[in-house]
Amino acid sequence: MGLIDIKKELKKLDKDKLVVLVADLYKKNKSVKEFFDFYINPNESDLFEKYKAKVYEAFFPVRGYKFRLSEGKKAISDFKKLGPSEELLADLMLFYVETGIVLTNTYGDIDEPFYNSLTSVYSQALTLMKKEKILDNFSDRAKKVVDDTRNIGWGFNDELGDIYSDFYLNS
Predict the structure, then answer these.
(1) Nearest residue to 48 (alpha-carbon basis) of 102, 114, 92, 94
(2) Ranges of H-type helices in the chain
(3) CB neighbours of residue 120 within 10 Å
(4) Do 28 and 20 meet the contact criterion of CB atoms below 8 Å apart?
(5) Nearest alpha carbon to residue 84 among 115, 47, 50, 110
(6) Global pTM?
């Protein structure tokens, strides 16, 4: 069944049945609840803080000691789906990279896939910032990312420096 089929079936429902269906969906599905909560009361700063905490938790879990990059990226993806401002999305993406760097500088060198993930999100964040014409709003933080990786291996600092230069020095 596809979206067209769903729309046809929903059009057959009267308003009361549609309200009951949406209310049931709201009660049973956490992501639908979050979507409607944000839709009805779009408090971006609270939502941002919630997802920022999820990103932080992915790197520094309250229980256990193993970081989970997939959880951090999922938090960014879920945040994006809710439709926040592009500036807050870019901010969250940059926070993901910054938090990964703090983890490395706290506990030592990790591995190439870890740095590839951070590099990829850094590049995506700067690409979004350029598209939205907000690079200047993040210039200090973007530079600090490069500065804070000077002593990290795997060519991580070089890669971030190249990306930074592409957006800030060669534009």
Answers:
(1) 92
(2) 3-12, 15-28, 30-40, 44-59, 69-81, 86-107, 112-131, 139-147, 156-164
(3) 14
(4) no
(5) 47
(6) 0.85
Q: What are the CB-based long-range contacts (under 8 Å, 24+) for 125-130?
A: 125/90, 125/93, 125/94, 125/97, 126/163, 126/164, 126/166, 126/167, 127/167, 128/86, 128/89, 128/90, 128/93, 129/90, 129/167, 130/167, 130/171
Write down the residue that tokens 């600092």 correspond to.
Answer: 157
Q: If DSSP codes are grouped into helix, strand and coil, which group holds residue 170?
A: coil
In the chain (171 residues long), the average pLDDT of successive 10-residue segments reads: 86 86 85 78 88 97 91 96 94 98 94 95 98 97 97 92 94 63
